[in-house]
TrEMBL record:
Molecular function in Gene Ontology: sterol 24-C-methyltransferase activity
Official protein name in the record: Sterol 24-C-methyltransferase
Pfam families xrefs: Methyltransf_11, Sterol_MT_C
Phylogenetic lineage: Eukaryota, Fungi, Dikarya, Ascomycota, Saccharomycotina
Domain SAM-dependent methyltransferase Erg6/SMT-type: residue ranges: 73-368
Enzyme class, spelled out: transferase
Keyword Methyltransferase: yes
GO biological process: ergosterol biosynthetic process; methylation
Signal sequence bounds: none
Record-listed E.C. numbers: 2.1.1.41
PANTHER family in the cross-refs: HYPOTHETICAL LOC100005854, ZGC:194242
Species this chain originates from: Saccharomyces pastorianus
GO cellular component, one term: endoplasmic reticulum
Keywords: Lipid biosynthesis, Lipid metabolism, Methyltransferase, S-adenosyl-L-methionine, Steroid biosynthesis, Steroid metabolism, Sterol biosynthesis, Sterol metabolism, Transferase
Length: 383
């Protein structure tokens, strides 16, 4: 199927699944308005590749179908994400006494600072979700942001929120696959990506597209999801944790940190910063909201968030959704989604505790001001 046909079909499917008021409802109320048949199809499309197999063939199928699989994943999890986490779909470090919202915003400010984003810069947000980080970074720096996303439902939501918060002048959201970008070469002053490029079947694919659309001398800053140096692909326990993360988070294949760093270099980038922000002595670990360890909760205002993300809260949501599904209030397949998200939570905590995985490998990479030689390298990397 051609890229244009796929886009058209995904847009039509999104309308069928989420209805005409697409984007305006959030969380459980949005879940309750979904079309039953379309939801069943979306869940099936997402889960068909995660049948417990981790052999090369199964992996190959997941890599090949990355676009539809991710599109379907976000069609079914977005409402749960917003209900449980808010509108920025990423992790962050926690400082003592800091609220959940402040920690999430600080993580975004830090990336904007490391990318060197300034007022009036034209910035690309690769895999922008429902625009939480784009809105924060636009307010924080005064830049203009284009959010790129292959999920129509999230784009509709991002546009709705930009309008609602009077930010439409500073931002726009467009549909597209980050493996094949439609923007002109050398368009953006800066590019950033937050916990999104891990959905790529090959990192050189997305990084070389970013390289192409970035102006010479511009920087790309990313929080990458990778397996750390402690990870051994041949260790069954390690592979199980990586598989849980892949299954629960809609990722075709988790890559090792060296693969990511090398991919940036292969595309012609000069890597200025390469730092795992999760590798620290923080008293409060990044994954704590998913552990249900109440001792870490920093203030009363965050109690609702921590209940929803904790083990107990997740069991409560699963039971509630399962009852809603039985009585026809939630579409069929919703229970399976909560089960997959449970896998995500378990895998992420196990990966975090063992330091086999990090969701915040910070890379800051520069496209050289003089690009002649490196453009050739970047073309070679995508072939
Ligand atoms: C998938 C990628 C690359 C990034 C998303 C990171 C996080 C925002 C999500 C990873 C696992 C998610 C879960 C939830 C919210 C969003 C995540 C933390 C829930 C807490 C949402 C409410 C459900 O009842 C349970 C979910 C567990 C997993
Ligand atoms: C975990 S979310 C992060 C969203 C956002 N960066 C944030 O922090 O809120 C990953 C995002 O990447 C997007 N994505 C995944 N694969 C993509 C692709 N091939 N092209 C464009 N966007 C993609 C998803 O639709 C989703 O919005």
């Amino acid at each position: 199927m051609s890229e244009t046909e796929l886009r058209k079909r995904q847009a039509e499917f999104t309308k069928e699944l989420h209805g005409n008021e697409i984007g305006r409802k959030t969380g459980l109320s949005a879940l309750m308005s979904k079309n039953n048949t379309a939801q069943k199809e979306a869940v099936q499309k997402y889960l068909k590749h995660w049948d417990g197999k981790t052999d090369k063939d199964a992996e190959e199928r997941r890599l090949e179908d990355y676009n539809e699989a991710t599109h379907s994943y976000y069609n079914v999890v977005t409402d749960f994400y917003e209900y449980g986490w808010g509108s920025s779909f990423h992790f962050s470090r926690f400082y003592k006494g800091e609220s959940f919202a402040a920690s999430i915003a600080r993580h975004e400010h830090y990336l904007a600072y490391k990318a060197g984003i300034k007022k009036d810069d034209l910035v690309l947000d690769v895999g922008c979700g429902v625009g939480g980080p784009a809105r924060e970074i636009a307010r924080f720096t005064g830049c203009n942001v284009i959010g790129l996303n292959n999920n129509d439902y999230q784009i509709a939501k991002a546009k709705y929120y930009a309008e609602k918060y009077n930010l439409s002048d500073q931002m726009d959201f467009v549909k597209g696959d980050f493996m094949h970008m439609d923007f002109e070469e050398n368009t953006f002053d800066r590019v950033y990506a937050i916990e999104a490029t891990c959905h790529a079947p090959k990192l050189e694919g997305v990084y070389s597209e970013i390289y192409k659309v970035l102006k010479p001398g511009g920087t790309f800053a990313v929080y990458e999801w990778v397996m750390t140096d402690n990870y051994d692909e041949n260790n069954a326990e390690h592979r199980k944790i990586a598989y849980e993360i892949e299954l629960g988070d809609g990722i075709p294949k988790m890559f090792h940190v060296d693969v990511a760093k090398q991919a940036l270099k292969n595309c012609g980038f000069e890597v200025l910063v390469s730092e795992d922000l999760a590798d620290n002595e923080d008293e409060i670990p990044w994954y704590y909201p998913l552990t249900g360890e109440w001792k870490y909760v920093q203030n009363l205002a965050n109690l609702a968030t921590f209940f929803r993300t904790s083990y107990l809260g997740r069991q409560f949501t699963t039971t509630m959704v399962s009852l809603m599904e039985r009585f026809g209030l939630a579409p069929e397949g919703s229970k399976e989604v909560t089960a997959a998200l449970e896998n995500a939570a378990v895998g992420l905590v196990a990966g975090g505790r063992s330091k086999l995985f990090t969701p915040m490998m910070l890379f800051v990479a520069k496209k050289p001001a003089e690009v002649e030689a490196s453009t050739k390298t970047s073309k070679k990397a995508t072939q």
